[in-house]
Amino acid sequence: MPSEKMLTVKDAILEALFEEMARDDRVCIIGEDVGVAGGVFGQTKGLFEKFGEARVVDTPISEPAIFGMTVGAAMAGLRPVVEVMFGDFITLVMDQLVNQAAKIHYMSAGGYTVPLVLRTAVGVGGNLGPQHSQSFHAWVAHVPGLKVVMPQSPADAKGLMKAAIRDNNPVVFIEDRTTYNVKGPIPDGDVIVPLGKANVVREGRDVTIVAVSRMVQIATKAADILAGEGIAVEIVDPRCIVPLDRETILASVRKTSRALVLDAGHLDYGITGEIAAIISEQAFDYLDAPVARLAAPNVLIPCNTALEPLIVPNEQQIAQKIREMLNA
Amino acid sequence: MPEIVSREARLSLLERMLLMRRFEEAVIHAAAKHKYIGRNHLYIGHEGTGAAVMAQLKPGDLAHTTHRNHGHIVGRGADPGRALAEIMGREGGLCGGRGGTWHMTDTSVGFQSTSAMVGGSIGLATGGGFACKQLGQGNVSVALFGDGVLDEGISYEAFNFASQYSLPILFMCENNEKPGRRETSMLAADRLLDIPKALKIHTMTVDGGDVEAVHAAVGEALARIRKDQVPVFIESQIEAWPGSHQHKPEFTTGETDISMAWDTGKITGPHADWIRQEPILRYVRKLLAEKAAAQADIEALDKKVQAKMAKARDFAEASPFPQAEGAILGAFA
Amino acid sequence: MTEKTFAQAMFDALSISMEQDPTISVFGASSFVLGRGLPPADEKAFIAKYTTRLLDPPVSENVLASVGVGSATAGLRPFINFGTSSFAFEAHNQIVNEAGNARYMSGGQLKVPLVYHMFHGIRGIGGAQHSQSPQSMYANCPGLEVVLPATPADAKGLMRTAIRSDNPTLFITHTKLLATKGEVPDGDYAIPFAKGEVKRAGKDVTIVAMSLMVLEALKAADQLKALGIDAEVVDPRTVVPFDAKVVIDSVKKTGRLVILEEASLVCSVASEIAAIVAEQAFEALKGPIIRVGRPHVPMPYSPSLEAFCTPDAAKLVDAVRKLLKK
C-alpha cells in the first residue's frame, strides 16, 4: 500500500533537517534568522522550538566569521548546516570556503574532516536584482575539495540533504528558490539519495537534455511540447555537479547522439561549458550534432520583472533549439 | 553655524522630510496597485536623519547608501518621478529599470550608489572619500547605513582605513534597533560608537527623531570633516517604523495626516505611541510652538509636496517597461 | 624594441600611465612590481615622484576592493594589487557584487575604471592556498574583464589597455613570468582586448594556452616538431572579452584542439573554450577536444606531488601524441 505523502521542496528539506537533527546530536543549524524567525523563507521553521538555541544558532550579520566558525566547529566534531541566506552572499565567505573548508582535509592528509553543509538559496525571479539573484555554482564546482548539490524535486531535495549531512566533506547545497513551492511525493522512511548519482527523469531516443536544478522542470515542459511533434527527449538531472555522474550523462548521449545542456546560471565559464566539454571529449564519436548549450546570458540580473524573463531559458527556446539540432 | 534660525531654512527642511514621506506612501500605493513583488525597505520614520544630512551636502559631495535608500535619493534632490519609475521597473527610471528599489543612482546629484549588500555602502564611501581627498576639490563623502553594518567585518576595515588615511567621510549610522531587542543586528559592544572610537574616529550620538538636533550634529561634523580632512561617525537613534518588515512594508500607521500635529486626539490605535514621536509631526509641533509657522503654512507646504508627488506618480505610471531585449545590454562600458 | 623582463614591462606601462593621468593611484605598490628586479635608480625615482599616489594600505582586502570601486566611480583610476590571488577571495563580494554590478545597476551612469591585479598559478611550494588560478571564477561574473598575459610585450600592451578601460579589469599574472624576458616595444604601446595571437603557426593541431601555459605550449611545440607534429599555439590573451575567432580559425585549419590549462579543469577557462569550439566548429573537428589541466585536488606542497599535479609541456606532448596517435 503506497503511503507516499506530498511535500514541497522547502518542506522536504526541512523534514530532512528535523530527521537528521533527531538522529544525530552533532547536527546543528547556524545562520542569520534561522532560529527564532524560522528562516527568511520559512525554511527552518520549527527547528528552534524543537531543538533549542544551543543547536539552532542565530548569528550576527557576519558571514565570513559565521562560516569560518562553522568550519572550525566541523573540524572539532560537529556536523553543522550553515545557511548563507542568498547564493550571492557566497561571495562573502569565499575566503573561508575556498582557502579553508575545501582544503583542510587534503592539507592535513585526512587528519581533519570538515563535515558541514553550506545551504544557500539562488534563483532568478521576484525582482531581487543583481545582488540577490546570482548563482555561482560554477565557482564552487571549480574549487577542489567541495561537493556541490543542486536538487530540484522534493524527494531528491530531502534525500540529498540527508546524504549531504552524513557526508564527511564540505557540501555546498544550492536550492533554487523558484522550486521551493514545487510539490512532489516523498518516499516513506530514511531514504538517502547518494551524492554523485544522476537521475534519468525522462527517457527518450532522439536527444539528451542535461539540465541542472530548476532547468529540469523547464526542460520537462519543452519535452512535452516536442513529444507532440514526435520528438522523444531524454532528460538527465545530474543532481550533483560535483561529483558529476559522467557515466549516466555519457550513456544517454551515446544512445541519442545529440546533447543540449541547460543551466539557470551564467553561460560563460559556467557548468554548461564543463558538461559540454566532457561530452565533446568523451562521446565525440557518437555525436551527430554539436553539443548545444542554453543558459543565462552574460549580463547582470536586472532588478526588473519585465527584464527578468530574458535571463533564464524558457521551454519555447529549448524546444526551438532542439528542433534546430535535429534539422541540422 | 549648525543652528537653523531662518524660517525659510526650517520650512525647507520640513518640506524635504514631507517629500521623503509622501514618496514612500506613493511606493506603498504603487506596490499594492501593481501587485509589485519586489522588496521595498521604506524610509518612513527616518526622515529626520536623511533630511538633515542631505540638506547640508554641497554639489560635488558624494553619497553612498543602502537598501533603505528611497528617502535618501529624493532627499538629495533626485527627480521623484524618475526615482519612483525606477522602483516600478520602468524605462524612465533613474537607471532605466536596471537597478530597481535597491540600486538607485543619480550621478547628477552625486548620489553614487545604493548597495543591497550589508556593509556595501561603507566601503564604497571610503573609496569616495579617498577620491575626494586625491582630487582635492574640498568635497566629502557620506555613507548612510544601518546598525547591522557594524556586524560586518568590512565596517572595521573601513573605519581603520578612513582613520589611517584621514579621509573626509561622514559615517552616518541610522540605528533603528530598539535597545535590548536583537532583531537585526547583534553587537557585543555596548555602544556602536565604541567601535569607530577605538580606531580614533570622532563620534557623536543624536536623537534621530529631532531633525534640528540631527541638523546641528551633521553641520558640526561636516565642518570638522571639511576643515580637518578627517572622518566623523554619527549614530542617529531612530524609533523604527512599525510597518517596516523584512520583506514587504505594511501600511500599519496609515497615510500621514499632518493635522495630527495639532489635533492630537486623532492619534489612536495600536501604533499611537510611534505616531506621537515620529519626526515629521514632532517637527511640525515644534515649528508651531515656536511660532515659526502657522497651521495654514504647514497645510500649504504639505499640499505642495503632494502635488509634486502626484506629478511624479503620473510620470512613473506613464513610463513604459523597458524593452526586454535590453536586459542583455549594459554590463560593460 | 628593447629586451625587458615581464616585471619591467608592466612597470613601463604603469609609469607611462601614471605620467599621463594624475588620477591613477596604486594600492599595494610594494608587492606589485617594485623589488622585482627593476633598475634600482628607476625604482627610486618612481617612488620619489609619486609619494602620494603609491599606497601601502592596511591588510584589508575587503575594504580595499571597495575603496577601488568607490574611488573609481568618483573619478579616479585606481590600480589595486592584491598580491597572491588567494587573498582576493577575502574581497570577493566587493569585486563581484559591487565592481562588476555598478555600471549595469546604474543604467550606465557609473563607470568603474579600475584594475585589480593579482598573481595566480603554481609558483613552487605555494601549497593549497597560494597556487590558485581563479580566472574562470571571475570570468563567470558578468561585468568583469579578465586579462592573462603571457609575454613581456603583451604584459605592457594589455596593461595599458586595462588601465585605460572604463570597466573593472582583473589583470592576472603568473609569478613565474615576472623574470622572463622578451622584446618589448618602446614608448606608449597598447594591445586591444579580445585580440588573440597565434604565437606559433602550425598545421597539425591547435594548442590553446594562456599566461605561463603559453611558454609550456611553445616548449611542447618544439618537442612535437621533433616527432613530426606541426603544432599551432594560440594565445587568446584575454578571457573576457574573449577572441573566439582566433581559436576557431585555427581549429578550422588544423582540425584538432588541445587546451592547456593551469587551473583545475572543472568549470575552467579550458572547459568554456572547449564548449565554444565544440559548438561552433563541430564540422571541422577530426577528433575530440582534449583538455590538459591540473587534477581536481587542492595543490599539494611537496615538490614531487606538486610536479605531478602541474600541467606542463611533457603532459601536453603526451596528450597531443595520443590524440594524433603518434
How many distinct folded domains of chain B? 1
Let me know the number of strands of chain A.
14
Instruction: Give the overall shape of chain A.
Output: globular
CATH topology of the largest domain in chain A: Rossmann fold
Number of strands of chain B: 6
- Overall mean pLDDT score of chain B? 90
Q: Which secondary-structure class do the elements of chain A indicate?
A: alpha/beta
**CATH C-level name of the largest domain in chain A:** Alpha Beta
CATH architecture of the largest domain in chain A: 3-Layer(aba) Sandwich
Largest sheet of chain A: 7 strands, mixed
**What is the architecture of chain B at the second tier of CATH?**
3-Layer(aba) Sandwich
Task: Write the CATH homologous superfamily of the largest domain in chain A.
Answer: Thiamin diphosphate (ThDP)-binding fold, Pyr/PP domains
Order of helices and strands of chain A: EHEHEHEHHEHEHEEEEHEEHEHEH
Spatial strand arrangement across the major sheet of chain B = 2-1-3-4-6-5
**Roughly what percent helix of chain A?**
25-40%
Distance between the ends of chain A? 49 Å
* Total of helices of chain A: 11
DSSP strand (E) fraction of chain B? 5-15%
Task: Explain what the structure shows.
The complex is a heterotrimer of chains A (328), B (333) and C (326). Chain A is α/β, with parallel strands linked by helices and 328 residues long. Chain A has 11 helices and 14 strands. Chain A has 2 domains: 5-186, Rossmann fold (3-Layer(aba) Sandwich); 199-327, Rossmann fold (3-Layer(aba) Sandwich), CATH 3.40.50.920. Chain A is 34% helix and 21% strand. Chain A is globular and about 60 Å long. Chain A starts with a strand and ends with a helix. Chain B has 333 residues and is α/β, with parallel strands linked by helices. Helix content of chain B is 42%, strand content 10%. Chain B is built from 11 helices and 6 strands. Chain B has helices spanning 7-33, 47-54, 70-75, 80-87, 120-135, 153-164, 194-198, 211-228, 272-277, 279-289, 295-318, and strands at 62-65, 111-114, 141-146, 169-175, 202-207, 232-237. Chain B is globular, with a radius of gyration of 19 Å. Chain C is an alpha/beta fold. Chain C has 2 domains: 2-184, Thiamin diphosphate (ThDP)-binding fold, Pyr/PP domains (Rossmann fold, 3-Layer(aba) Sandwich), CATH 3.40.50; 197-324, Rossmann fold. Chain C has 13 helices and 14 strands. Chain C has helices spanning 6-20, 40-49, 61-73, 85-88, 92-99, 102-105, 135-139, 152-164, 212-226, 244-254, 269-280, 303-309, 313-324, and strands at 2-5, 24-27, 54-55, 77-84, 115-120, 145-147, 169-174, 181-184, 197-200, 205-208, 231-235, 238-240, 257-264, 290-294. In chain C, the strands form 3 sheets. Chain C has a 7-stranded mixed β-sheet with strand order 3-2-4-5-7-6-12, sandwiched between helices. In chain C, strands 9-11-10-13-14 form a 5-stranded mixed β-sheet, sandwiched between helices. In chain C, helix 1 (6-20) packs parallel to helix 8 (152-164). Chains in contact: A-B, A-C, B-C. Chains A and C meet through helix 4, helix 6 and helix 10 of A and helix 5, helix 7 and helix 11 of C.
